[in-house]
Design a protein that fits this description.
Length: 357
């Protein structure tokens, strides 16, 4: 089954796609997810896409096509796919038709998930996704049921998509009205469109979706499948150029954009390197200053410690006094010592006295 789910942001395309994946075993191909992944991995295409996504605008057709082509070429998409978020304008619808015609794999159905704008707004502002298991909840209408409902019996780790803020939501809804809504008549003209009331319980909506797909399968005539209707744009182009030319043109544009994005990425890296160098130099200078200051403080501390040691090692006051007194006494003794001449005279006198005796 090759299916396009059409609908405004928040119409439940992603949630219902997941249910179809579980039931039919064909992959969901969400261009929003492919773009978010490219942005998260900071690939050249992702870096080009980021600004438009943050503003709630459509990303350049060629960027989206490059990611989509690569995804649809994978083996799991050979048996069929659910396109969620693509096409989003008439040019993309033409490109998709050309691409599928090339591989002779036309679409089986296009389902419009129909939801009132007020409901959409509430769904988008309340939308939360679990970082761990990827499940999507709504804090107003579909909050997590159990506290330990996530993988490994843990609590869900919910986050809000950055483009689910009110300003961006308004932009996205306006873009949908202006650019994607025309696809309703585009696919109606090709008898591929089925409209599903997408308000209400998840399982009820899923049952309606399954009914619509069964109707589409029953209605699909082999003739229609062999010769999909071309849009006025596509058939206009087909007069002067082939489907291959259209695809080649898109691929060339994608290559150009990728090259430009790579150049921008290289520039960004260079700028970041320069900035990093400057930061390192600044940090080194600060570190040198800190070391110098620390050395000075250490020197001062060592000097103080030495002084304290010297002070502590000095003899006590009693000892110093005794020593001083001893010094004075020795000086007095020295000063009062008889001279050599007197000592000789005294010795002579002493000796003569002994002789007389
Ligand atoms: P979604 O998850 O489908 O709501 O997409 C999130 C954002 O990705 C959109 O608001 C756009 O900026 C961008 N995006 C997704 N699919 C397309 C597409 N087919 N064409 C252009 N931009 C897209």
């Amino acid at each position: 089954m090759r299916l396009v789910l059409l609908g405004a942001p928040g119409s439940g395309k992603g949630t219902q796609s997941q249910k179809l994946v579980d039931k039919h075993g064909i992959p969901q191909v969400s261009t929003g997810d492919l773009l978010r992944d490219a942005v998260a991995r900071q690939t050249p295409l992702g870096m080009q896409a980021k600004a438009a996504m943050d503003a709630g605008k459509l990303v350049d057709d060629a960027i989206v096509l490059a990611l989509l082509r690569e995804r649809l070429a994978r083996r799991d998409a050979k048996r069929g796919f659910i396109l969620d978020g693509y096409p989003r304008n008439v040019a993309q619808a033409d490109t998709l038709a050309a691409m599928l015609e090339e591989t002779r794999q036309p679409l089986d159905a296009v389902v419009l998930m129909d939801v009132d704008t007020r409901v959409l707004f509430r769904r988008l502002t309340g939308r939360r996704t679990c970082r761990r298991c990827g499940r999507v909840f709504n804090v107003y209408t579909h909050p997590p049921t159990g506290l330990r409902d996530c993988k490994g019996g843990k609590e869900h780790d919910l986050f809000q998509r950055p483009d689910d803020n009110e300003a961006t939501i308004s932009n996205r809804l306006e873009v949908y009205e202006a650019q994607t809504q025309p696809l309703v008549s585009y696919y109606r003209r090709r008898r591929l469109l089925k409209v599903v009331d997408a308000e209400g319980e998840l399982d009820v909506v899923f049952a309606r979706l399954e009914d619509a797909l069964a109707d589409a399968a029953a209605a699909a005539s082999p003739r229609e499948q062999r010769r999909p209707v071309r849009s006025r744009r596509a058939s206009g182009r087909a007069k002067g150029s082939s489907v291959n030319d259209t695809l080649k043109g898109a691929a060339r544009k994608a290559a150009r954009i990728e090259k430009k994005a790579e150049k921008t990425a290289r520039k960004t890296v260079k700028r970041a390197e320069k900035q990093a160098k400057r930061t390192v130099a600044k940090a080194e200078k600060a570190a040198r200053k800190t070391v110098k200051r620390a050395k000075k403080t250490a020197k001062r501390k060592v000097a103080t410690a030495r002084k304290a040691i010297r002070k502590a090692a000095r003899p006590s006051l009693a000892k110093r006094t005794k020593r001083a007194v001893g010094k004075v006494a020795s000086r007095v003794r020295k000063a009062t010592k008889p001279s050599a001449k007197t000592r000789v005279k005294r010795a002579i006198r002493k000796a003569s006295r002994r002789l007389k005796r």
